[in-house]
Design a protein that fits this description.
1 helix, alpha+beta, two-stranded antiparallel sheet, single chain, 71 residues
Length: 71
């Protein structure tokens, strides 16, 4: 799963920070089609969660550095 993000100043329309990230989640393929579909869905959910956590972390670092610079 790949995701791009950007944080834009609502007043000026200027992009303040932007980036992209990706995550890979694996699953085992078994004989049961139902189990394979459930495992694939779970892998997608895990990848989406990993991507969202990475974006949240990057934005947290960005804002932390911004506060330090203003202090």
């Amino acid at each position: 799963l790949r995701a791009s993000y950007s944080l834009t100043d609502a007043g000026t329309g200027q992009v303040i920070v932007a980036g992209s990230t990706r995550a890979v989640a694996t699953f085992n393929i078994v004989l049961s089609e139902f189990a394979n579909i459930a495992a694939e869905d779970d892998a997608r959910i895990r990848a989406a969660r990993d991507v969202s956590e990475e974006i949240r972390t990057r934005l947290g670092v960005f804002f932390s550095q911004r506060v330090d610079e203003q202090a």
